[in-house]
Fold:
Amino acid sequence: MASSPTSSSASSRSTPFASPDFSSLPIMALREKIVEKILENRVTLIVGETGCGKSSQVPQFLLDKNIKPILCTQPRRFAVVAVAKMVAKARNCELGSEVGYHIGHSKHFSSSSKIVFKTAGVLLDEMRDRGQNALEYKAIILDEVHERSVESDLVLVCVKQFLLKNKNMRLVLMSATADITRYREYFGDIGRDERVEVLAIPSSNQQTIFQRRVLYLDRVRSINYHS
Ligand SMILES: Nc1ncnc2c1ncn2[C@@H]1O[C@H](COP(=O)(O)OP(=O)(O)OP(=O)(O)O)[C@@H](O)[C@H]1O
Ligand SMILES: [Mg+2]
Structure:
């Protein structure tokens, strides 16, 4: 588990957005199945449309079943902070306590944090310093796995090596892009009895919180995000 001390003074309540109603997210219907599959498989690939609730809910599903600590990587710093704030707020905890994040030199987590969000770059730095001890989590979630970079590819290689040695760790890969069969193939040789499975979240036909609209600047200025 990551052991750096927290320097948290950040508030989880600083987002200008109203709290979304997570209970209506498409992923909620598959809550039990997702946890069941993650426990059953060594590697689970979760594919679901953007906004269905992957980043904010899957770490919480695992924590609610006492699977912890959980590491979740995001390709960009902005996403790390945004999702960490959103999850801390949903769990009604101070950012840096149960839920934390680490980007660059900014650490907002403690040794007792149960869900920690990081960039792939931060994780690689930690692996350089602490070797595979940096991967001592019950579950590792690599989010937006289709977004390739040198860092994310290196993380995949290191995590695969770690999987071969550590039989208890569960790996979850998430993406909004269906074309992730190559990742299943990549992990296909981790062991004869090891399962690698793809789980698709069915699209929702309902209006969700995450709707795309074209707005022009004068209209954007008049939006009250607190309403
Ligand atoms: N920072 C935020 N503040 C408030 N609501 C948010 C925020 N980010 C996302 N949401 C809303 O929360 C819901 C779940 O978002 P989440 O990020 O978990 O979805 P996702 O499946 O990971 O999407 P994506 O594939 O785009 O990463 C979405 O409907 C979205 O509109
Ligand atoms: Mg996401």
